Amino acid sequence: MLLKGKVAVITGAGPGLGRTLSVLMAREGASLVVAARSRDTLEKIATEVSAEVDGEVLPVPTDVTDAAQVKALADATIERFGKVDVLVTAAFPGTHRKNVLDMDDAYLARWRQAVDIAAYGTLLACRHIAPHMLERGGSIVNLTSMSSRMGYGGRSDYAAGKAAVHLLSHALADELGPQGVRVNCVAPGWIASDVLEDWMRTRAAAEGTTYEDILARDTGAMALRRIATEEDVARAVIFLASDQAKATTGATIDVNAGQHFT
């Protein structure tokens, strides 16, 4: 098991990718601390992981933009496990598409909140958890996006937040490398989900065609002719978190099925 004996903290451990990360990292032997704003969501994930894997899972409700709560997350991890080996940051709110010139005051506030969760939330998690890695070394894996390199109309909040995390990770890799702490990114493209399928069906209806035609067109532009799954993304995270990547830092693994080459 790639993470046997390691303690991993996952922020943004909500439904979808966060849950998949939790399950697969636990299968690889990690003890987990899962953090998100919703206690109910975290307890559900902890129950699901514990039912499938004989490992420890500590749910800690956390708003990653609140420094006191993030520090409490770090303290709870050390109190329970005595160490932390891996930090995975995956917190980001769901957003709606809106062009910059169409944003009213309320949406401008949402835009700022989205960037705060991605960028400032990642900064706070690293600031308060990385110090506990300095004696033994460790691995930080930040979830960015294909959009951190190429923005799309209507998604400037997503692109700006993820781009900030991307370059923050470079700076942290330089700062923490001498202490043996590695900092890397995983940048997913589209991830197969009900939300993505609904968006494709909406496009199909608007164009007067079928979902199957839209899917074939979109995947036809991808080198692997398919859309990446949550497990595909989680496996890249696990690799970077593990000792298999012990000489890799300041890097980004793209998981987009060949939708965009870098």
Please provide a written account of the structure.
By secondary structure, the chain is an alpha/beta fold. It is 47% helix and 15% strand. It has a seven-stranded parallel sheet with strand order 3-2-1-4-5-6-7, with helices on both faces. The model has no long low-confidence stretch (mean pLDDT 94).
Can you give keywords for this protein?
single chain; 262 residues; alpha/beta; Rossmann fold; 47% helix; oxidoreductase; oxidoreductase activity; NAD(P)-bd_dom_sf
Q: What is the beta-strand fraction?
A: 5-15%
Order of helices and strands: EHEHEHEHEHEHHHE
The largest pleated sheet is described as:
7 strands, parallel
Give the tally of β-strands. 7
Principal-axis shape equals: globular
Helix and strand content put the structural class at: alpha/beta
What is the mean pLDDT? 94
CATH superfamily of the largest domain: NAD(P)-binding Rossmann-like Domain
Sequence of strands across the biggest β-sheet: 3-2-1-4-5-6-7
What is the top-level CATH class of the largest domain?
Alpha Beta
At CATH level 3, the topology of the largest domain is Rossmann fold
Backbone CA Rg: 18 Å
How many angstroms separate the termini?
Answer: 30 Å
Count of helix runs:
8
Portion of residues in helices? 40-55%
Protein name: SDR family oxidoreductase
Family: Belongs to the short-chain dehydrogenases/reductases (SDR) family.
GO molecular function: oxidoreductase activity
InterPro entries: NAD(P)-bd_dom_sf, Sc_DH/Rdtase_CS, SDR_fam
